[in-house]
Amino acid sequence: MILYKSATCREKGANEQYKNNLENNKTQVLYRRIYRQKFMIAQRNKDSKHIQKDFDKWKKEAKEKINQMKKGKLTEDEVYIWLVENK
User: Fold this and answer.
1) What are phi and psi of 45, to 5 degrees?
2) What is the full per-residue pLDDT of the chain (87 aa) written as tens digits?
3) 49 is a domain residue
4) Buried-most residue among 3, 4, 38, 68 (CB within 10 A)?
């Protein structure tokens, strides 16, 4: 018999909150979409140091832009435009 651990109320609530935040923030949605695409390309090409380096560089820059947006130093539109230009 296999027992599966069900998610706690705290985990379910955190997931619900994350999904709600994504629905209300077009920049976060775009960031996640681009991140997933770049991550999958990097995973499929583990032997390519160039692809890995580009992904790591983009990830660091994008995370910094998102953090600046959260702190109010950049607007959501500025970060969105940056993401579109740096896919």
Assistant:
1) -125, 50
2) 566 677 788 888 877 877 777 667 889 899 999 999 999 999 999 999 999 999 999 999 999 999 999 899 999 999 999 999 998
3) yes
4) 38
Domain containing residue 44? 10-85
With contact defined as beta carbons under 8 Å apart, do 30 and 82 qualify? Answer: no
Query: Is residue 62 one of the residues assigned to a domain?
Result: yes
User: Rounded to an integer, what distance in angstroms lies between the CA atom of residue 52 and that of residue 22?
Assistant: 27
In a domain, 59, yes or no: yes
Q: Looking at the 3D structure of the chain, how many domains does it have? A: 1
Q: How far apart are CA 45 and CA 39, in angstroms?
A: 10
